[in-house]
Specification:
Pathway: Cell wall biogenesis; peptidoglycan biosynthesis. This is UDP-N-acetylmuramyl-tripeptide synthetase. It contains 15 helices and 24 strands. By secondary structure, it is α/β, with parallel strands linked by helices. The chain has helices at 45-50, 74-85, 104-117, 146-158, 170-174, 196-199, 202-210, 229-234, 285-300, 305-314, 341-353, 374-384, 400-408, 423-433, 462-474; strands at residues 6-8, 18-19, 30-32, 55-58, 68-70, 94-99, 122-126, 129-131, 136-137, 163-167, 183-188, 216-225, 242-246, 253-260, 265-271, 274-280, 323-324, 332-336, 359-363, 387-390, 418-419, 439-443, 450-453, 456-459.
């Protein structure tokens, strides 16, 4: 299975199960020594042997009596072994990998909806959770580790899935978690700047994203955003058939926005000589791009354009992705992940176009995230919002005030920024400031319902906080009712 490997202490090694955690190693397991961000698995070989490991997979020779298989990259080898032990499910399903800086989760859901509308059974793994074709469960990771991913694909196949959509983070690609998976299609939404704390530079970050193309099978295809300069450069480097999408430039599949409101937008989707209108409940240019990428995947799989449109329109909301909060209030409220400066800029720009009053932005940055993007968030919020309120997102081990100070460094006029570290209080204050015709954007977290503060996890749900305040605020509403004739009367009140 690993032709370039060198085996010491045996002619060959038969693997029936493996483990990458020495504490979880069971008798007869192959222990895989991987170098992580904080620990080196080679330092725990003796513990794995004490727990029953029968052989070791490592990147160097080790002083042990157990057989040792030496490879150049144990992370890649581990992923390949996990897929093999799961029966290589990607060889019998059409697996679609989705990556990019922004929009991955939404594109995954749109692709799933299109293919299900066309009659396929589609599994999915994204940052919102997984769907194995039998049940759906939430989780708190973008791309699971190699063992979990292999097991998930195996369950999808067992449950009759014909297609599987996998969201691939840059960290997962840099750690080779998708090795051993034969991708039938790759969709790249955009390539911007993110996770420099992990990758060190934008070049390394883009290089990690591009690794997904190496997982494409020879008969596979790719879809890229031609309006994104970094993606456009990839077109000449992709050896398999590739399809481009664009909203402003030239591409095989394009779109043009017809009208946009807070509650919906309509755009014309053009593919070849066909053009059809698409009406989505989710708004913004970024969502049009997401629809284009998903539509391209569906069209290559032979789904007709009308079915593609039905699949796109079926997805009327995605938790934490420009999620509209409607509680009868006279102003707009949206919750969006928008944790990068370009994502925040796109969200603010989309809301500016449909807002007659002020745009109010409540946002923050992760303490565990890339520090270099904090001033960029501040610069975007100052320019894109009429009223910006800096608060905490997930401070982690850092002081919330330190993170906020880094964001303030991006302001040309810091005195214009409002600071309120308590996120729940900040959201409620922003809502209390909103007037008829305004729009409030609550950005930076999306769907997580827990906030990490040092070593403590505290309940915090942006959507729930906003809804609770809006419902409470609407209870004092007075309604005048005029009854004419003797017919039945229907009274409509805001929920709550």
């Amino acid at each position: 299975m690993l032709p370039g490997a060198k085996i010491l202490g045996a002619e060959d090694i038969v693997v029936r199960s493996c483990a990458a955690n020495s504490k979880l190693c069971l008798p007869d397991d192959l222990f895989v020594a991987m170098v992580g961000a904080h620990q080196d698995g080679h330092d725990f070989v003796e513990e794995a042997i004490a727990n029953g490991a029968s052989a070791i997979l490592s990147e160097r020779a080790l002083p042990t009596t157990r057989p040792v298989c030496i490879v150049e990259n144990t992370q890649s080898a581990y992923a390949q072994i996990c897929q093999a032990l799961a029966g290589d499910p990607s060889k019998r399903m059409r697996v679609i990998g989705v990556t990019g800086t922004n929009g991955k989760t939404t594109v995954c859901r749109l692709i799933q909806s299109i293919m299900e509308t066309a009659g396929a059974t589609v599994g999915m793994s994204s940052s919102l959770g997984y769907d194995n074709g039998y049940d759906r469960q939430p989780w708190d990771c973008t791309t699971p580790n190699a063992a979990v991913l292999a097991d998930l694909l195996s369950r999808m196949e067992y449950n009759g899935c014909t297609h599987a959509v996998v969201e691939a983070s840059s960290e997962a690609l840099s750690r080779d978690r998708l090795d051993g998976i034969e991708l039938d299609a790759v969709a790249i939404t955009n390539l911007r700047q993110d996770h420099l704390d992990v990758h060190g530079s934008v070049t390394n970050y883009h290089r990690a994203k591009k690794k997904i193309l190496g997982r494409l099978r020879e008969t596979g295809f790719a879809v890229v955003n031609a309006d994104d300069s970094a993606c456009n450069k990839l077109l000449s480097q992709i050896e398999t058939p590739a399809l481009s999408v664009a909203l402003h430039g030239a591409a095989e599949i394009t779109a043009s926005v017809v009208e946009r409101h807070k509650s919906e937008q309509t755009f014309l989707l053009s593919a070849g000589d066909e053009t059809v209108p698409v009406c989505t409940r989710m708004i913004g240019d970024h969502h049009v791009y997401n629809c284009l990428v998903a539509a391209a995947v569906g069209l290559v799989y032979g789904v007709d354009l009308k079915t593609v449109v039905r699949g796109l329109e079926r997805v009327d909301s995605i938790p934490g992705r420009m999620q509209r909060i409607e509680c009868g209030q006279p102003f707009g409220v949206f919750v969006d992940l928008a944790h990068t400066h370009d994502a925040l800029a796109m969200a603010l720009k989309a809301l500016r176009r449909v807002t007659h009053g002020r745009v109010i932005c409540v946002y923050g940055a992760d303490g565990l995230g890339d520090p270099s993007k904090r001033p960029l968030l501040g610069r975007v919020a100052e320019r894109g919002a009429d009223l910006s309120l800096i608060t905490s997102a997930n401070p982690g081990d850092e002081s919330p005030l330190e993170v906020i100070h880094d964001i303030l460094d991006g302001y040309e006029r810091p005195a214009r920024a409002h600071v309120m570290p308590n996120r729940a209080a900040a959201i409620e204050w922003a809502l209390s400031e909103a007037q008829t015709g305004d729009t409030v954007l609550i950005a930076g977290r999306g769907t997580p319902n827990l906030q990490t503060l040092r070593e403590e996890e505290l309940p915090l749900d942006d959507v729930q906080i906003a809804q609770s305040w809006l419902y409470q605020d609407s209870r004092g509403l007075e309604v005048d009712v005029t009854v004419e004739d003797d017919g039945p009367v229907l009274l409509k009140f805001p929920r709550g």
